[in-house]
Specification:
mainly alpha, disordered C terminus, two-stranded antiparallel ribbon, 69% helix
């Protein structure tokens, strides 16, 4: 139920009305709506309006529905042909999810599960129990969200061009900078004054009772969560910011952007007291390394990256077991998770009650067990919600649903995306969603931005690299000539290079 309309919702509606009044065409308003949903999902901002069957209806959901309506209107008015590949994969995705729900409705999953909406912390403490699977309103609401997600991506790639996605990425980076500044204010007030005023302002602004409003210490760090509900959400928002920032930077479309912003984001991750930082930082480092290789060489050497990933994992495991490692934040929790894996897979959850991070570990183990019991079609979308987007997808929709979801993301990148763009997308999704996020992160609009943006940005990076190589080759092979002719040739070369993409 809704207690009162938040100040954010009121300002939000006013901004929407102003944008609509200034928009000349439905396509312009649809692009603005798409940008708003992407920015809210990237920053993990929850502005709840009402709760139905455990599912929150937020401001972003209202904007999502408006986007679909205005995008359909724009496509009909301008007679825009929908992207056939994206439309086909979206239909397959929705049909697979509906088939999974119908199958589990007529042939219910026989084992007890931790139903979606049940607190994993309460389960670990023994205050919540497993129950039989029941297909109900929550499953239908999650299916509706997936359906809107799928067809929104089709409308986006059909209506918008590469420059539009890059523009939305720039807007998202601008809002991300504001989020970072707000988090720095939160860090300053908590670290130096012991005040939790920033979190109280967040709760008041969004009228969200789920936002932490208490002063929390984890190990020797003060927990931070910015404009989100909890530290793990905040770290994921910072991760999305770094990914989009690096994509824009490597494309050459944001030359004035300073690398101090991703550095600040990484610094805030390290002091946020969220255990997710241990997983996300290596993924972001390897993602940046792969982007650097594409920009300089035009290809990615995956073997060194995999070797570095294995070495980092082994190093964390060894260092976390030392006396020095257990005295440092994050590594103590990582060590507790490492030594508790065997007990978790044995089902001895009582022994894990005092282990830091045990709810996240137990949720992943339970989702793996559930998936093993229904590997093909899962137990129905929206049935279980662990602290892992990937394992939530596998447990709920099976390997068939997860494969359909990956194919759908591939279709958003176009018929001929830049080389390695899909592998980079899978790498980001597998890295950030494997032990982060929940089922809702798998239908986040952040993915609808990152999927096409990765293709356009990497393609732009490859074009820029090829042009630089051609210029260098032409300068080496060009015979010496008078200075005036040389300048004339250079100007003509730049003009041709800049005009080619427009044609």
């Amino acid at each position: 139920m809704m207690d009162f309309v938040s100040p954010f919702a009121i300002v939000f509606l006013v901004i929407l009305a102003l944008i609509f009044a200034r928009s000349r065409k439905h396509t312009d308003f649809a692009l603005a709506l798409f940008a708003i949903v992407c920015i809210m999902d990237m920053n993990m901002i929850s502005a709840p309006l009402v709760t139905i069957s455990g599912q929150e209806i937020s401001c972003s959901d209202i904007v999502l529905v408006l986007f679909v309506l205005f995008a359909l209107s724009a496509a009909a008015r301008d007679r825009v042909a929908l992207n056939k590949l994206a439309l086909l994969t979206a239909l397959v995705l929705v049909i697979v999810f509906i088939g999974s729900l119908l199958f589990n409705f007529f042939f219910p999953y026989g084992k007890a599960i931790i139903a979606s909406g049940t607190s994993w912390d309460m389960f670990v403490l023994g205050w919540a129990t497993q129950s039989a699977q029941v297909i109900g309103e929550r499953n239908l609401l999650v299916l509706a969200r997936y359906t809107l997600f799928a067809f929104s991506g089709v409308l986006a790639v059909s209506l918008f061009k590469g420059d539009d996605f890059i523009r939305v990425g720039r807007w998202a980076v601008t809002v991300g900078k504001l989020h970072i500044c707000y988090a720095l204010f939160e860090l300053f007030t908590k670290a130096f004054f012991g005040s939790n005023i920033a979190s109280q302002l967040t709760s008041l602004l969004f009228a969200d009772s789920h936002v932490y409003t208490t002063y929390i210490m984890r190990d020797s760090l003060v927990a931070l969560w910015g404009l989100t509900r909890e530290p793990s959400h905040f770290v994921l928002a910072l991760g999305f910011f770094v990914i989009v920032f690096l994509l824009l930077k490597v494309s050459g479309r944001a030359p004035s952007e300073k690398m101090v912003w991703p550095a600040l984001a990484v610094g805030l991750m390290c002091v946020s007291a969220a255990s997710s930082t241990v997983v996300l930082l290596p993924i972001l480092a390897l993602f940046a390394l792969a982007l650097f290789q594409i920009k300089r060489r035009g290809f990615v050497r995956w073997l060194p990256i995999c070797i570095v990933l294995v070495v980092l994992a082994a190093g964390v495991y060894v260092f976390a077991g030392t006396e020095l490692g257990q005295s440092l934040p994050y590594f103590e929790k990582a060590h507790g998770v490492f030594v508790s894996i065997e007990s978790a897979f044995r089902g001895d959850y009582f022994a894990l009650r005092a282990t830091m991070g045990s709810p996240r570990l137990i949720s992943v183990v339970e989702s793996i067990r559930t998936w093993a019991g229904a590997p093909l079609l899962g137990i129905g979308v929206g049935s279980i919600n662990p602290f892992s987007g990937v394992f939530a997808q596998l447990a709920n929709t099976g390997i068939v649903g997860f494969a359909a979801w990956l194919v759908y993301l591939r279709s958003l990148q176009g018929r001929a995306p830049a080389r390695f763009s899909y592998l980079m997308l899978v790498f980001v999704v597998a890295g950030t969603m494997l032990f982060l996020g929940q089922e809702g992160s798998m239908y986040s609009f952040a993915l609808l931005l990152i999927a096409p943006l990765s293709s356009y940005c990497l393609r732009s990076a490859c074009i820029n690299r090829n042009e630089l190589e051609k210029r260098g080759t032409s300068k080496r092979l060009r015979p010496k000539s008078p200075k005036r002719e040389k300048c004339s040739f250079d100007v003509e070369l730049v003009h041709t290079a800049s005009a080619a993409p427009r044609r």
